Amino acid sequence: MIYPKTIRFPAQTIAAAALWCVTGVVAFADSASEDSAAIWHTWNFTPFISVMTVFVLWIYLRGRSKAGIGQRVLFLAGTAIMFLALQSPLDGLADVSFAAHQIQHISIHAFGPMLIALSAPAGAMLAGMPASLLRGIYVPIARVGAIRGLFSVLSRPIVASVHFSIALVFWLIPSIQARALGDSAFHDLMHFSMMAAGLFFWFSMFDPRSPPTGSRYSVRVFALLGSLLVNVGFGAWLAMKSTIVWPAYGTGLRLGMTPLFDERLGGTIQYVPGNMMMAIGVIIVIAAWYRRERRTEGWQRRAIERQASARVGVRELRQRNRRVVASLLAVGAFMFTAAIVVGFLDHMRIH
Fold it and tell me: Taking a C-beta distance cutoff of 8 angstroms, is the pair 28, 91 a contact?
């Protein structure tokens, strides 16, 4: 299928927008009357999230021919992680335990979006989108300059890195966290913004487009290291602090843990897996940078070889032309000499 060349929407728009829809409404089990045993077995299937997840998967699987096996596995795994983080018993556990909440946050802010971005799903999503949806909704939206500009700005590595780090720190402010635990709409907003930040961040880091179309790899590495430093500092403080900072989760045992242990465990979860994913991201970007440099080096070497070959070819052509000219001159001189000799002999015979 050929798409209009006038549409220049960022490649990550489809995956980001679709997963925004999937995670736009988050329902939480925040009833304080539920005991821990019940929470461990409570699945919170929100119709909107469930239906939209199935819809996104249906579109992706329709266009799966545009993705390799590895890409499909990454996309499905990332989508499953984000869905389970919101709909499984983890959703209820996150209301009574800071550590469980950090597992949920790292799943929707880092791990899930990272796998989805690595899958580069834009091609499959576009190919799988029904024509009516593509022409009736996606194309008109993609032609709006303001929307394209907004996505372009949010997809810049530095902007995405700042957005990612702010989403991490802001929603852990104790007063903000307490309000999110008591206000379901505010809680939904928190998860929505964290997932948006994660998707924009990881898509900007793993953009398959090489410079100059995509952002420079050096900028991506710098952005990743910046977010890594924020996560290192914040996670280390969380893991080693000596006071209770989030009393909204309760002052008694939290899933069998003391409040301080629960919060330190949450900090360790934020610190270790979070930093590990950042480090892996840096390695992936540097590897992509190295492959591009090798390709560029190969192109330059072949160009030099072609130029050298062309120079050799011209030199050989000139030498061949000289031989041809010399041969023609020799033949001409022989014919001229032969004509003179024949004329002279004929003149001698007559006389």
Answer: yes
C-alpha gyration radius of the chain: 33
CA 141 – CA 139 distance, rounded (Å): 5
Asked if residue 44 lies in contact with residue 91, where contact means CB atoms within 8 angstroms, the answer is: yes
> 300 CB contacts (<8 Å, ≥6 apart)?
none
CA 238/CA 254 separation, integer angstroms: 17
Place of tokens 């909440």: 101
**Between the CA of residue 147 and those of 137, 143, 151, 172, 202, what are the distances in Å?**
13, 8, 6, 30, 20
pLDDT, position 9: 40
d(CA 207, CA 119): 10
pLDDT at 312: 53
Nearest residue to 120 via CA among 7, 201, 198, 209: 209
What tens digit of pLDDT does each residue of 287-319 get? Answer: 988 888 887 766 666 666 666 655 555 566 566
Contact between 142 and 210 under an 8 Å Cβ cutoff? The reply is no
Q: pLDDT digit string (tens) for 82-95?
A: 999 999 899 889 98
Contact 254, 318 (CB under 8 A): no
Nearest to 74 by CA among 217, 214, 202, 219: 202
Residue matched to tokens 């997963």: 19
Query: Helix and strand tally (H, E) in the chain?
Result: 16, 0
Residue ranges of the chain with per-residue pLDDT less than 70: 1-39, 297-351
Domain spans, the chain? 13-302
CB atoms within 10 A of CB 88: 16
- The Cα-based distances of 95 to 35, 103, 112, 170, 345 in angstroms read 12, 12, 20, 18, 122
Q: Is the peptide bond before 4 cis (omega within 30 degrees of 0)?
A: no
pLDDT of residue 49: 86
- Whole-model pTM: value is 0.74
